[in-house]
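FYI - complex with PRP, inputs then prediction.
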Amino acid sequence: MTDTAPVYYLSWEELHRDTRNLARKLVDTPWKGVISIARGGLVPGAILARELNLRVVDTLCIASYDHDRQGELNVLKAVEGDGDGYLLVDDLVDTGVTARAAMQLLPKATFVAIYAKPAAIELTTHHVREFAQETWIHFPWDITHVYSEPLIK
Ligand SMILES: O=P(O)(O)OC[C@H]1O[C@H](OP(=O)(O)OP(=O)(O)O)[C@H](O)[C@@H]1O
C-alpha cells in the first residue's frame, strides 16, 4: 500500500449484506460444503454455510511469506480431494496469487470471492463487488470504532 492509495473501510453490515448477495447467486447448485481460504475467507464461509444450509465446512490454510509483495506461499493445511462439488471462498481476490494456488490444490472446486480487483477478476466464478486495483480495503476484523474529532471545535 502506498501513502496515496485510496482506502476503503468496510463495515460488518456491508460485508454481511454482500456475502448474502453472493449466496443468492449460488442457491441453484447442491453444494457438498464450503472450503474457506484462511483467514480472509473464514467469515464469508460461515455466512455462506448458514445461508446455503451447508454443514460441511473446511479450511485451506495458506500464508504468504511477504504480505506486501505476496511472495512465496506456504500451505499450512491442505484439503483432501480435488474440491469437486465444494465452494472455495475468499474475501478478496487481488493479484490472484492466493486464488491461483488454491485452485491448483483444489482444481474442481468452484472459487468465489466477495470482492475482486481487476488484475484477477476472471478467476472468480462469482463475486459481488469490484474495487479499483489501487484501493486498499480494510476488512471489519481489521478495524475498530474510534472517536472522530469534529471538523470545527
Ligand atoms: O489475490 P491476492 O493478491 O493473493 O490477495 C488476496 C488474499 O490476500 C488476503 O489474505 P492475506 O494474505 O492478507 O492473509 P490472511 O487472509 O490470512 O490475513 C485475502 O484474504 C486473500 O486471501
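Helices lie at 12-24, 42-51, 97-105. The pocket of PRP is lined by residues 37-40, 64, 67, 70, 90-99, 120 (CB under 6 Å).
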